[in-house]
From TrEMBL:
Pfam families from the UniProt entry: adh_short_C2
UniProt keyword list: Oxidoreductase
Organism this protein belongs to: Salinimicrobium marinum
Protein name: 3-oxoacyl-ACP reductase
GO molecular function: oxidoreductase activity, acting on the CH-OH group of donors, NAD or NADP as acceptor
């Protein structure tokens, strides 16, 4: 039991977070599945099997994060891996976005990520090792219409990934990011199937000509989570079928 790796994956009861938690659990990593919704999170853990443990917390409640991480670390004994996957998006015309809407997205996608990372890094520092993986986005690589706050938040995550990598290297903690392109999830399929023009645009500028699978992102996260990437820190890896360089 002692030598098993322990991970936290935020926003892990669906989508890319769930795919990542599955990759971890299947590879013998004890994985704390974070979600706001108790029912959905317990259901996800049941599907993921005995290596999955529920970690029910709304990360927007910043003041609750320190105690929750201390408690989790006590129960787990250590935290080896943190995947900052939880995030929200909103499609809206730039001129109509309110200050409050903009702030809400930054609060969840940037502030909560910062607060969780800070508290987990304190635990990782004790063991002089750890890997933090942030989930970025194509929205940080180029301009995508109608997602101003999301774009700002994901670009902030890329900058934070580099700054955190430099700050935390002295404690044996590595920090990297994965930037998914267009991946086949329930959410994206619904959005693209309802908008054939957007779907064609996405596929025509993706050299590999198709959408990615959630497992493609999970595989990249797993690489950063394990010793396979032990000399890699401060990088942002696009997993996008070439979308970010496609013409």
């Amino acid at each position: 039991m002692e030598n098993k790796l322990t991970a936290i994956v935020t926003g892990a009861n669906a989508g890319l977070g769930f795919a990542t938690a599955k990759k971890f659990c299947d590879n013998g990593i004890i994985t704390y599945v974070n979600g706001r919704n108790k029912e959905k999170t317990l259901q996800a853990c049941e599907e993921l099997g005995p290596n999955a443990k529920p970690f029910i917390l709304d990360l927007n409640n910043l003041d609750e994060i320190p105690d929750a991480i201390v408690k989790l670390a006590k129960e787990a004994g250590k935290i080896d891996i943190l995947v900052n996957n939880a995030g929200i998006n909103m499609k809206k015309e730039f001129l109509e976005v309110t200050n409050e809407e903009f702030q809400n997205i930054l609060h969840t996608n940037v502030l909560a990520l910062f607060a969780v990372s800070r508290e987990v890094a304190k635990v990782m520092k004790e063991n002089n090792s750890g890997s933090i993986i942030n989930i970025s986005s194509m929205a940080a690589q180029y301009g995508i219409p109608k997602v101003i706050a999301y774009s700002a938040s994901k670009t902030a995550i890329d900058g934070m990934t580099r700054a955190m990598a430099v700050d935390l290297a002295q404690f044996g903690i590595r920090v990297n990011a994965v930037a998914p392109g267009f991946i086949k999830t329930n959410m994206s399929s619904k959005a693209l199937d309802n908008d054939p023009e957007r779907k064609n645009k996405v596929l025509s500028r993706t050299p590999m000509g198709r959408l990615g699978e959630p497992s493609d992102v999970a595989d990249a996260v797993y690489y950063f989570a394990t010793s396979e990437s032990k000399f890699t820190t401060g990088t942002v890896l696009p997993v996008d079928g070439g979308n970010s360089i496609g013409f």
